[in-house]
Amino acid sequence: MTDLFKEKARDWDTRELVRQLSAAVGSAMRERLPLSEDMTIMDFGAGTGLITGQLADRVRQVVAVDTFPAMLEKLQAKPELHGRVTARCQDILAQPLDQQFDCIVSAMAMHHVQDTERLIRILVDHLKPGGHLALANLDTEDGHFHPEGAQGVYHHGFDRDALAALMERQGLAEIRFVTAHRVERENGVYPVFLATAVKL
Ligand SMILES: C[S@@+](CC[C@H](N)C(=O)[O-])C[C@H]1O[C@@H](n2cnc3c(N)ncnc32)[C@H](O)[C@@H]1O
């Protein structure tokens, strides 16, 4: 597989947009998820660990899943994540993990997977009954957030109602949306939602 994020991984953590977005999303997750010392969580599309790093001190273990090695190498190089974080470079849509989690989080990764319903189904399969899911991504946008022709971008944001319906179909309840952040750019303002839900 081509490592789409190889170049981006180099300076990912120093990008102002990325830093602000992940800080806001991580803070919204900490506020809305019942995190505790006995929990094991998965960060889907964990990248360099900007979200993982904000949750790891509150839980027993974080499994950071990503398909692009360059991003996970950055995550693994962070000494503060050693001990509580396990990196898995694996496409869990093709090869699920042999583990269920108390909570699954994902920030700005869902638009990289073409079939959203299948992704949610697989994430739900990885959740224990009563487990929590927290998904952050852009609200539906006009297609200008990513550069034209950006590889691996299958969705220009998500419609909250359509996503809620899809989550409900996959056995999730207590579905709530908040606006976790607004990316302000010269070409417009892009709200970022955090959707939380519980597996029945
Ligand atoms: C925009 S980055 C976000 C990274 C991190 N969550 C953050 O907020 O900084 C998207 C991440 O999703 C990962 N990704 C893309 N497709 C994926 C897939 N099918 N399975 C797991 N991770 C994937 C990419 O490698 C990348 O690290």
Highest-level CATH class of one domain: Alpha Beta
CATH architecture of one domain: 3-Layer(aba) Sandwich
Helix content: 25-40%
The count of strands amounts to: 7
Task: Give the N-to-C terminal Cα separation.
Answer: 35 Å
Q: What is the structural class?
A: alpha/beta
CATH superfamily of one domain: Vaccinia Virus protein VP39
Strand content: 25-35%
Give the oligomeric state: single chain
Taken from the alpha-carbon principal axes, the silhouette is: globular
Largest sheet: 7 strands, mixed
Lateral strand order in the biggest sheet? 3-2-1-4-5-7-6
Uncertain regions spanning at least 5 consecutive residues: none
Average pLDDT score: 96
Q: What compounds are bound to the protein?
A: S-adenosylmethionine
What is the element string, with H for helices and E for strands? Answer: HHEHEHEEHEHEE
Q: How many DSSP H or I helices? A: 6
Radius of gyration: 16 Å
Reported by name, the CATH topology of one domain is Rossmann fold
Gist of the model:
The protein is of the alpha/beta class and 200 residues long. The protein has six helices and seven strands; from the N terminus they run ααβαβαββαβαββ.
What does this structure look like?
It is a single chain. By secondary structure, the protein is of the alpha/beta class. It has a domain at 1-6 and 44-140 and 152-171: Vaccinia Virus protein VP39 (Rossmann fold, 3-Layer(aba) Sandwich). 28% of the residues lie in helices and 30% in strands. It has helices at residues 6-11, 16-32, 52-55, 69-76, 116-125, 160-169; strands at 40-44, 61-66, 85-89, 101-107, 127-138, 172-185, 188-199. The chain has a 7-stranded mixed sheet with strand order 3-2-1-4-5-7-6, with helices on both faces. Strand 6 and strand 7 form a beta hairpin. The chain is globular. It starts with 5 loop residues before the first helix and ends with a strand. The structure holds S-adenosylmethionine.
